[in-house]
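Throughout our pipeline, every protein is held as a single compact record rather than as scattered files. Such a record has a labelled line for the sequence and another for the backbone structure tokens. The remainder of this section carries one protein's record, kept here as part of the documentation:
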Amino acid sequence: MDTVTEALLARVRAARAELTDAVAAEDVYAVAVAQDELDDAVRLARGLGLDVEATRADEE
């Protein structure tokens, strides 16, 4: 796995964690910001042909 791929998958994992934290805190603004970041990271990853669902399975 190259550096760009690793960084992008790390961004997806971090965005998912931030979204989880924002939901747990019941912070509507933070949820919106975190969801936007996750959407952007997933879009970029998929654009490079990365399987972001496999990343989710690795986290569980």
Q: What stands out?
A: The chain has a mean pLDDT of 90. The chain has one domain: 3-59. Residues 3-59 form one domain. Residues 2 and 33 are 28 Å apart (CA to CA).
